[in-house]
Write a structure and sequence with these properties.
Two copies of one chain form a homodimer.
Chain A: H1 4-7, H2 10-30, H3 36-43, H4 45-50, H5 52-61, H6 75-80, E1 93-94, H7 104-109, E2 116-118, H8 140-153, E3 162-166, H9 168-180, E4 189-193, H10 200-206, E5 213-218, E6 228-233, E7 252-257, E8 276-280, H11 281-284, E9 293-297, H12 300-314, H13 319-338, H14 348-370, E10 373-374, E11 381-383, E12 388-390, E13 396-401, H15 408-416, E14 418-419, E15 421-422, E16 432-436, H16 441-457
Parallel strand pairs in A: 1-14, 4-5, 4-6, 6-7, 7-8
Antiparallel strand pairs in A: 3-9, 8-9, 10-13, 11-12, 13-16, 15-16
Helix pairs in contact in A: 8-13, 9-12, 14-16
């Protein structure tokens, strides 16, 4: 849009605007209520010309989204057709990482509702106007929407908690280690987590050979004396099970990673209430590219030191992404209030619950048919938010190869061109692999098609 | 805008749109070419309703920008009036940090040229579509604009360099330490810089008690044997002088922090060509809130390890801010091509050069009048970019109190309610303070007014 003042004369703009009227008059004559996509196509007349980046994005990323008669998402029907898809045998399917592109469809269907507009003169300062908030770089609007979404979902206590925003929950994990480790000369504190644990924890913890903390391994076999930090990831990455601390000693300090404690992945059975709870937009709304996470922290001094770490590490967190995250969370909370029969639209969590539910149904069917691999079974529980009983349907499948397949990762990579992460990186053995359940329909469908045949044909 | 489909009927939108036509017709009848602010006010009809955040931003931040007849910035004329301003004796002026809000005025005058529009479904992925770039999370558009702006300004070599994007140059500094430190058992490598050095370097280097590196103090007095890392900040923070490495030993590894090597601060006398060069949007364009920095790195393995650190530390860098930074840098480079008599508009660097030049002229005059404090003198050099000879006009003033003022920071804080950073934090003595020259006109003018009287009246 930098060029608009020079490219577009006022007469050009009048012609554009009259064209807009004409389309509106036609629409009214047709009595069209339209859906959000139509409105996007209309309203985006201005944003689209505003930047070549945006235009590229529209051209390259805007899909033709088919809709059912009810106007609900077509994701379900489309992802059912995994056995009818055009298979491309040479294509490598990478399900190593939890890239949450499964959510693109929902945000595409929401159209302009979450379009972010940031003027060039906004957010130049390092500081946020947040009334002397302890976390001086937290955008107040984001703080407000974080509290609201947790109240709507009922998955975490926010009252009397300090909010610390981070560049993803990965930075917040390091901020928590900095805040909770003793800074005297007592040497590094051990950091432990029950295997299978998130494969990045050991790498992040030890990458700088810190004198404050060090990786202590599997919490289940931890024998160390004195203070320690235990990481509790619930639901767990990689296996999806709900967890509690396993080292029950008086000197334990707990960090709860609740990145996956959302109703699309697991029943919300209680309001989490722990000293340090970490969440991230990457896995809650799917906006991994924003790099926004937040910590809910009970103790003021812990929150102050976490803020201090983020100040030293990156002098705060992107204002642009904080403002965008606030807008996305607002739309998520609004959608929960609006969903139901009267609107015929699903809330974000209903939509994403359905997507995960269907993928797990298909994966379990494939496992049952092949008998050569298994996935975990979860007990059904009632979700206070969705008001129904269901089993966990995690963001990752912790898949175990059976009957003579010793190295499951190697088997899937060499025989079926599917990239996964071996169990050995999670403190477990290589008969296991972690598989992302959050990829786009096209990749997930090819994955299903290949494993449905692979275990029957290849061995 | 989340509510638009429900709040605005198609008839409402037609009425809105017809009103827009009417204003356009009136403007055309008046023959108004308008300026970018008028266009902003017009085009922003859609963006403004799109979110309460945007509306708040418009109301609270959109200033009445007076313009000279030529249509150039009014910053000069406005900031001349420091002795006519309404002084508020109780107001504390905080010039401790280099918050670059002086640039707000320019970006306000650019209006919608740098307005960023990001659809809610964009950039969900952790990854950037960057053709297997070594830095896998670098947005290609940002990479392109980084190369372009350095070519336009001529301040750094980009050919055969790897670009590593970071969450500000602070993260890139740590990435460089991670990449350049030995990872064997040889123990932490010393990191040194000539005093006065940036006060955050020691804190960042030692905050995690890393076994890879440790702060080694003033490079001028460094006596250590074996390998070391020397930080060369040029122009230097806090004193603004151009620098070269001072420890001339064979085992030295250099990191060049070139955050201030831009023509508004110092003459661009040569194209910087070093192994590791760090830059940041905060000080080049003033967008500190974006938290975007970049490294130009000669060695592939160093760039790979810097990328590895950022992956471990924050799993990449905000896509939103990268896309916004690309747009801002594009406008900066475009403005350099467009500036001159034929357009009557200043380029970004001409505008910001004028702003800094005037502030330094006023500060030197105040110093001369009072005789109670001094600021550094710089030798004049020819700037290859601006094509004229001038003295450095740094982002910070390294102010020295004279005649019996032992603690300069205490004096300014207690006597004149001006917060500055004491020389003792920069490895120097407390007769010095660092003062930001990048604050808004209103604060800078009050600062000038107070110090012009303070040194004459208070002692």
């Amino acid at each position: 849009m930098g060029q608009v003042p020079r490219i577009l004369s006022w007469r050009n703009m009048l012609v554009l605007s009259l064209a807009v009227n004409f389309s509106l008059i036609l629409r009214i004559l047709k009595g069209g209520g339209g859906n959000s996509l139509d409105i996007m196509a209309y309203v985006s007349i201005w944003p689209v010309v505003s930047t070549s980046l945006d235009r590229t994005a529209y051209n390259s990323m805007w899909p033709v989204v088919s809709r059912t008669a009810s106007g609900t998402s077509s994701l379900s029907s489309s992802s059912c057709n995994y056995n009818e898809i055009e298979e491309d045998d040479d294509r490598i399917i990478n399900l190593k990482l939890g890239d949450p592109t499964v959510y693109e469809r929902y945000w595409q269907e929401m159209g302009e509702m979450t379009t972010m507009v940031i003027p060039g003169w906004q957010s130049l300062s390092y500081f946020s106007d947040n009334n002397n908030n302890l976390c001086w770089f937290l955008e107040p609007e984001l703080g407000k929407e974080i509290v609201r979404v947790h109240k709507v979902v009922g998955n975490a206590v926010t009252q009397d908690r300090f909010i610390v925003v981070g560049t993803g929950s990965t930075q917040l994990y390091q901020a928590a280690l900095y805040a909770l480790s003793p800074h005297d000369d007592s040497g590094p504190i051990d950091v432990v987590s029950a295997a299978p644990f998130y494969s990045s924890y050991p790498l992040i913890t030890d990458c700088l050979k810190s004198g404050l903390y060090r990786w202590g391994g599997d919490a289940k076999t931890y024998k160390g004396e004195g203070p320690y930090i235990e990481l509790v990831t619930s639901p767990n990455n990689p296996d999806g099970f709900l967890r509690h601390s396993v080292v029950n000693r008086s000197k334990g300090i707990l960090i709860h990673d609740l990145a996956y404690y959302w109703p699309q992945y697991t029943p919300i059975t209680s309001i989490a209430d722990h000293d340090v709870m970490l969440f991230t937009a990457s896995k809650s709304t799917g906006h991994a590219g924003m790099r926004i996470g937040w910590g809910l922290v009970k103790d003021r001094e812990t929150a102050r030191k976490m803020t201090e770490y983020i100040e030293l590490n990156t002098i705060g967190v992107s204002k642009d992404s904080q403002l965008r995250a606030a807008k996305v969370l607002k739309v998520v909370s609004d959608s929960c209030g609006r969903s139901g029969n009267e609107t015929k639209t699903k809330s974000f969590f209903e939509h994403s619950y359905d997507a995960m539910s269907e993928r797990w149904k298909l994966l379990r069917q494939a496992a049952k048919n092949s008998k050569r691999f298994t996935v975990p079974d979860f007990t059904s529980q009632r979700c206070n938010f969705l008001g129904k009983v269901f089993e966990s349907q995690p963001a990752f499948a912790w898949l175990k190869c059976e009957e003579g397949i010793i190295d499951c990762e190697k088997f899937l990579r060499e025989k079926k061109k599917i990239l996964t992460k071996s169990g050995k990186y999670f403190g477990d053995d290589q008969s296991y692999v972690r598989i992302s359940m959050l990829d786009r329909d096209s990749n997930f469908n090819i994955f299903l098609s290949r494993i449905s045949s692979s275990f029957n044909s290849t061995l």
